[in-house]
Amino acid sequence: MNPASLVATLRVDRHIQDRRSTDLREISVCCPRDAVRILPASGRTDGTLGNKNLKIKTILLTAVLLIPAYASADNWSKEQMEVLKFEEACVSAKSADQLMDCFHKDFVGWGQGSTVPTTKADRKKGIVESFANSESETMLFKPLSVIVKGNMAVISYIDSSKSTNKTTKEITYSTQRWTDVCLKDGGRWYWISDHGLDISND
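^ thats the sequence. predicted structure below, dont judge the formating
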């Protein structure tokens, strides 16, 4: 599926994915890759989508969709589409193992809220705990730019997600912006570095 069809087929009732931490209390219910801090519970529901959450979700999705695309799907090169296919699979990962496979063994990145750069090993605990405690799916993946130079690539994108805590059934929405540095090693792409920011409250 190409980036244009991902946006075109967006449905408000679809679900989501996210990303890293060492303290379980700080693991985002929607962010396995980075396990960012959980936002205050005000305005959340016990598993059903209330009017306030619907309003917040609508505002977030509208804001993301209004972001101008720096390139249309028709303009992506074969090399760019290869990187986008890799990113789409990683952002939509359905298990900790699948997401961990996106990280190169030499990965070092600066995730959301991290005081220092973290390695693949550093992020594994938060990723495993996040998947164990919540179910999440990607609602929107919007690539803004893709630069490919040989076996290196840099992609910047917005993704929005919804997550449900397996125990409390609490629903959490998240919108993030990411810049991922990718390395092609052994014939396939990996994340070699990244930097992300949660913009849900922006």
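The chain is about 25% helix and 30% strand.
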